[in-house]
Amino acid sequence: MAATLIDGKKLAAEMRSQIAEGVAQLKAEKGVTPGLAVILVGDNPASLSYVAAKEKACAEAGMYSREIRLPAETPESDLLAEIVRLNADPAIHGILVQLPLPRGFDEKKVIDAIAPEKDVDGFTPVNVGKMLIGEECFLPCTPHGIVKLIEVTGMDLAGKHAVVIGRSNIVGKPVAVLLSRKSVNATVTLCHTGTRDVGAFTRTADVVVVAAGRPDTLTGDMLKPGAVVIDVGVNRVPDASKPKGYRLCGDADFESCAAVASAITPVPGGVGPMTITMLLWNTLESARRAAK
Question: Domain residues for 99?
Answer without folding.
Answer: 33-115
